[in-house]
Amino acid sequence: MPYIEKIEMKGFKSYGNRKVVVPLSKGFTAIVGANGSGKSNIGDAVLFVLGGLSAKAMRATRISDLIFAGTKTEAPAKYAEVAMHFNNEDRGFPVDEDEVVIKRRVYPDGRSNYWLNGKRTSRSNILDILSAAMISPEGYNLVLQGDITKFIKMSPTERRMIIDEISGIAEYDAKKEKALSELKQAEENLARVDLLIREVKAQLDKLEKERNDALRYLDLKERVEKARVTLLLGEIRKLESLIEESNARDREIEAAMAAIEERLKDIAREIVSKERELSDVERELEEKSEDGILEVTRKISEVQSKIEMARRNIELAEKEIEESQRRLAKTKEELKKVSEEIEKSRNAIQRWSKRREKLKAEIKEKEVAKNELVVKLGEIDRDFARAREEFDKVVAELEEGKKELYMKEGDVKKFEEEIERLKTKIAQDSAKRTALKSRIEETRRALEARRSELGEVEGKISRAEARLRKAEKELEEKGRSLKKVEGELSKAKEELIKAEAHREIRGNRAVEFLKRQKVPGLYGPLGELITAEKDYALAVEVALGGNYDNVVVEDDKVAEKAIKLLKENKLGRLTFLPLNKIKPRSMRGKPPLGVPAMDVVSYDARFKNAVAYALGDTLIVNDMDEARTVGIGKVRMVTLGGELLERSGAITGGHYRPRGRLGVNVDEIRKRVEKLEREREALESAVNALRVEIKGLQDGLFELRMKKSGLNKDLQVIQKEMERLLAEDKALKEEIEESERGIEALEKRIHDAKGEMARLRGRIERLERKRDKLKKALENPEARELNQRIREAEHEISKLREELGKVESRLEGLEARINEELLPRKADLEEEIEGLVNRINALKANIAENERAIGEFEGELEELRKAEEGVKEELKELRERRESLRKEIAELRSEKEELSSKLQELRIEANTLKIKLAQYEATLKEKREELKHHDAKIVKGIKEIPLELEALRKEIEEMEEEIRSLEPVNMKAIEDFEVVERRYLELSSKREQVVAEKESIEEFIEEIEGQKRNVFMETLNQIAKNFSELFAKLSPGGSARLILENPDDPFAGGLEIEAKPAGKDVKRIEAMSGGEKALTALAFVFAIQRYKPAPFYLFDEIDAHLDDANVKRVADLIKEASENSQFIVITLRDVMMANADKIIGVSMRNGVSKVVALSLEKAMKILEEARKRSEAEHEEMFGHLSG
Amino acid sequence: QVFVVDDFRVDIEKHVYRLHELVKEMYRESGGPIRFRDLIFDPTPKIIARTFLYLLFLSNMGKVDLIQEEPFGEILVVPLEA
């Protein structure tokens, strides 16, 4: 394999004007140097000399920018030149020399020149030579700065195309190309043959059709003749059988009619009995639904309202119990308080009594002392004694008065408290009343609402009842009308049938046909346009004679048209009376006896001439005698008995079977029948509507009655509630009044007490004044001393007395309170408690009573409901019965209807049948005649006669149609077809040959593709295996795979890389770090290198993102790979450098790069030798010291 | 100037200047150009490569001149006065 020996640069980028040589060798060379010193420019030089065209790839804007631009001290270069020396000892280049030198020079104008081994050559020649040595400026072996991830970034398809190139599948593509052009040729041949075949086929198809037509034509001719004869035979046979059938049918109809008439009688009987039953059921239903159900419903609602009442009572009682118990508790509380107070008061009384006794004793003692003094004083002065006595009396009175005053004050206070209590009670009651009032109001409103609703419901009921009565009456009327109409209808129908039968018998087929054609201006047979008075009918009919069937038409043109129609349809002959041409006949002078026929008939004035033509000269006479009187031969005469006396003297007579009433117009009768039917239908629908309405009304009434009973029940409940509320209100009002009266009484008593108190105060004042006066009178010098002492004693006594008075009043007060207030209150309370307890018990009993009542009522209710259910069930049954009866009757009626109409149909059918029979016989004769015209051989040859003549007829028609459509027929086509068919078969076999050729080419292409695929897959598998191994080596513990996007068709998809760096999950390559990407890319590059090494590899700073450990692994791998290929690695990493065989150092001085080359191997050897030498020297000098 | 070399980036300037000092000192002592091999204190590939790289840095900085007569020949180092 060739390798680069050296690169020479001159004027290239930073390398200055002097020639710079970069020595290279086999193995691993590192290019190192500081950033910006020009290391990468060496890589650019390699790209440049290999013929790179992209300035950008060489990190320049234009190719001419690659020329050294000059520095301060150095001039710019005139051109840039790079020469690359390849070792070609193994003749990797197709050049028979040991060294191949490629040189490229670029000038400032961008022009490039190339030299190969010193000879000028072209770029394309250089590229061819390089490509032969598997070198290209875009090759994957050149990894530029920051470009290591290009294998990661490139699309899967681009990545796959690298493998394509390496596997060399291009040769298969060339083979395929050739095969494809052959295929194209084959396809063109095929197209030509196809064109020819199409041409011949079109001809062939046309001839085939013509031949088939000719054959078909011959066949049809034969078949149609045969079919015609068959048809005739068939028709004959069919007619025979029809005649037979008609006879049979006639007999059948007779029998059926008899049976139907029998059945009709039965049905009539059945209807009568069913209707009787229906009316029974209806009566019963009415009774039951009127009384039964309503009664039960009313009872149910009553019981329900009773239950409601009882429940409400229970509720009330419970509430009352609650209230009573609350009151009881309160009363008990109060009783307890009162009892306590009594106890307390009694204790106080005891205390105060003791105090009183003590005071009394003290007073007594003091009084004894005082009396002694008084006695002494009395001895001094009698008057004084008297005064003293009076004074004492006054003082006593005074005390009495004051005591009374205290008591009154106590009373007043008590009364006031009582008043306050009563007022509170009034306020409470008033509040209760207000609440009650709003409830009363509410209840009253509810009551009114219910009442108005009830009124409404009652109104509705009465309206509905009125409507029901009306509807029933109407129904009755309509029913009657319906019956009447039905009777009339059946009569009319019978009449219609008779008339139709008559017409059918009498009828003239020709006239009927014309009538059906609806020719304008054609009015019908004269006989039908005339109505005769009843007595004269026979005479008129005879008088009309043959003119009866004469057809009256507007004018001769109409007549002509009608005649044409008759002719075309072979319907016989008729006489027409054109109104514009017909000449009326008349009598010469009116004879004395008889009536002119014209006078006894009525007709449309338009037809006068026609009628006069037939009857104008005819006289109607009573009998032959009268005729004779008039004179036979004088005038045309008809007797009422039907004898005709012509003017010629000819007399016609005998039994005459009337043709039917003149002017009995079937159409009119039919119209009448239709009208009656419409009427009947209208009546029936009216009756049905009425029935529906009645049922609706009955149901509505029932609903309304139920609602009414419900409302009544509600009303009762509300009313009771209202009454209760009013009673409560009244009780409250009375209580308030009583309280007010109590207040009034108390106020009066307070007033009295206050009067008394004022009186007492006056008295006290008076007594005090008297006492003071008396006191002065007691002023006596001698007695003063005594008096003083007495007074002191008295003062003490009075103090004691006052206290005693207070004590007594207190005692009295207490006693009064106990006796007059507390004890009665206690008694009251006890009484109240007893009353409440009794009340509670009574209420409980009441509740029990009510509950028992509810139980009973519920039982009753249950029974009533059952009864209601029963009645309803009964009603339902009755209704169902009624419905079924109605339905049965309706069914019977409709059956009757049906049978009647069937009967009529049968009658018509019988008549029709007779007419048809005659026709059949005539036709049969014709057909037998016709058969004689056909070839007897054919007639004999026919063995089978189909039953479906219509189909046969149609077949004949179709065959004739086809024969016509086939004409003209090309009989020569039968031979021509065979000639063209041979040509067609020849061409078809040729086409098969061409197709086979084409298929073999296609197979060949497929085979090439298979080989191509195999080669590709082999290469890929090998590289993929290498890749996985190398990745594992570069990223220990990691794994990576190459995966085809489309394993079924590798060339339809790209090649994916799936990498799993150590300790990480499978990563999308985009998500990997720069270092991981670089490792993955390197694994890919080395995988290819291992499979098919390129001559050299240039890596520019592939280790930038790797840590030292990874750089070491990459460096080891490069070292290993460098045994097979040359590696030039631009790097800054010492670990990488340390692994290289040679190091090229680049540094820049004054803007010009220079190169220093170092062989690590050589350096190591020299250093080792130097070390050994110095060691030896050392040893020589100092001896061997180490032990 | 920034040198992007991972493991000894922090010390690189220190190492480069130390080498410069060494070169200057040796130059003072010998008075002539210094042989590259005389700058190697430990003959391992890594140290050789590193020293070579530092010399290239110094040359780039204009501190020393590197002289080589022929490819892979003796490399002589001469300090330059700033």
TrEMBL record, chain A:
A biological process term (GO) from this entry: chromosome segregation
Key word Nucleotide-binding present: yes
Cited Pfam families: SMC_hinge (PF06470), SMC_N (PF02463)
rRNA processing recorded as keyword: no
Organism: Thermococcus celer Vu 13 = JCM 8558
HAMAP family per the UniProt record, alphabetical: Smc_prok
A GO molecular-function annotation: ATP binding
UniProt-recorded name of the protein: Chromosome partition protein Smc
Residues annotated to bind ATP: 34-41
Keyword vocabulary terms for this entry: ATP-binding, Coiled coil, Cytoplasm, DNA-binding, Nucleotide-binding
Leader sequence residues: none
Main location class: cytoplasm
Cellular localization per UniProt: Cytoplasm
Written domain comment of the UniProt record: Contains large globular domains required for ATP hydrolysis at each terminus and a third globular domain forming a flexible hinge near the middle of the molecule. These domains are separated by coiled-coil structures.
InterPro entries cross-referenced by the UniProt entry: P-loop_NTPase, RecF/RecN/SMC_N, SMC, SMC_hinge, SMC_hinge_sf, SMC_prok
Subunit structure: Homodimer.
Ranges for domain SMC hinge: 520-631
